[in-house]
Structure formats: C-alpha cells, structure tokens
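pasting for ref
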Amino acid sequence: MLGAKFAPWLLGKLGAWPSLLQVGTAYTTLLLGGSGTIVLLFLMNAVFRGAGDAAIAMRVLWLANLVNIFLVPCLVVGWGPFPKMGLTGAALGTTIGRGVGVLYQFWSLFRGGGRVVLRRKDIRLQVKPMVNLMRISLPAMFQYAIATASWLGLVRIISTYGSAALAGYTIGIRILVFALLPSWGMSNAAATLVGQNLGAGKPWRAEQAVWRTGFYNMLFLGTAAVAFIVFARPVIGLFTSDPEVIAVGVDCLRLISYGYPFFAFGMVVVQAFNGAGDTATPTMVNLFCYWLWEIPLAYALAKLAGMGPRGVFLAIAIAESTTACVGVVMFRRGRWKRRRV
C-alpha cells in the first residue's frame, strides 16, 4: 500500500520523464495497491504445491490469467460495455484477474475434499509455528527483494538512454520472462521434491531430482535460446514497428539468451535450497551476484566502456550465469541436506 501512495515518486526515481509520469502514475498506483492479491496468489499456490496438489495451483493460474486476458483489452480499448481506460485499464484488469484467482484459492481451501482443508476452527495464532515460518521466510523475502531491486537498478540505467531504449528493453524482458514460465514450474517442482524427500529421510533422492530437473530445464531453455537468437528480429517485430525500439529489443533478446542454459540450472538450484528450508544460502548468493556484481558491471559496461544498453544486457547474462555457477558449487557441498524446516 505504501507503494501505491508513493507511485509518482517511485517512477520519478527510476528516471520517468513528465509524459510517462502522467500516463503511468495511475497504472503503477493500481498495481501496487493491489499487490496483496499477488502475495496471496503465490502464498496459497505454494501451499497447494507443497501438499503435492499442484493441479489446483495450475487451475488457479489458468483462471487468473484467462480473466486477465479477457479484461485487459476490454478495459484498455473500451470494447462493448467496458469503459476505455487506456493503460490504467491494463492495471485494473490484471488486479481483478489476480483477485479472482485468490477467491478460487479460498474456495478450494474451505470446500474440503482436497489435500489441504481450512476450517474456521483451525484459524488461530500458534506462536511456535509462526516463529519458525518467520525464521525461514525473512531471508526468503530479502532474497526476492534483492533480485527485484537489482532489476529496478537496471531500469534506472537503461532509462538514461531514452524512451526507445526503455521500450526495447521492456519488450525483450517480457518475452524472456514469458519463455521462463515453464522453467519456473520445473523449478518449483524441484523445490517440492527436495522438501518431500528430505522429510522422508532420503536426501540422495532429493539431490537426484535436482540434477535431473536442471538437465531437463537446460534442454528446454537451450532450445528457447537458439530460437530467440535466430529469430530475434521477427519476434520483437510482433510488438513494435519502431526501428529504434526493434534494434534495442533484438540486442536484449539475443544477448540475454546466451545465458539461458546457465539460467536453467541456477533457477532449479536456488529453488532447491528454498525447498530444503535453507533460504539463507540463496539470499547471500543473490546479494553478491546482483547487488555487488550485476549492477556495478552493468554501469561499467554501459557508461564507462561506452556500450550503452548492450552493456546492461551483457551484464545480465554474465551475472545470471555467475549466479548459476555459484549456486551449483554451494549445492554440491551438501549443507542443505542437514537443514530442517
């Protein structure tokens, strides 16, 4: 909610020029004001996956995204009875879609019949479990805050090169993130398998699950990387016809894709630590690789070496690859096997 209140200030700090502030303030305010829905969406889906009921988590995301896909164009363009709201409509449609997904999650928890059932009599404060949850979750929250803040830092650097550079970067990153969605699913599955096998006293099977998932993830992302490198221009051209934006988007898509095979193992290993209850290790890895390595490297390549936006894209690929290598080394040491939630 604080983010919604300070939306114009936040955009200004990220380098937004006056015209962008005018258009983007309402959009940012709505998304940040409705951030509780995305927190609940992720939280309860983690509960379902941890209980081995990933099918419900999948249905929740399908429902939320279908509502989002339907509402956003209706509210942006003003189709039928819907008002024409422009960019603000995109934020409203997205928030409503997430809210619908959260309502479905609550219905699934309270209706009974699933692996996790929630009843009113079960809703009470239990201090010891809450302390354990806070002990595990605080490093995890900091872990994701580090990664998110690093992306904001990169946006701040990119914004200094004008609207075309920022637009090209945004399009390229959106495409890359879309391609990563199946990989996130495999990474979450690996985390679930690690937690379940450690709980069953079979750490060797947990380790085997991580290596296999990482290998399959590498095959998938390696294929996606080849496609993006070869077809970067036509893919970016689907979203814009501006030559400057296309040039930046192509560089973004190609350069970052070179790190995809490394991303594959990095994503799986980081989630494996979290599944084992060792949230401190990936937090320290993120702190080093993002704040102390990625952002300074991006600034050095873009500004000092004169590479411009290409320097930022190259820094992302290098830093993400470094994260994967460090994560694999830490994972092989095996300290996570002695962790207990």
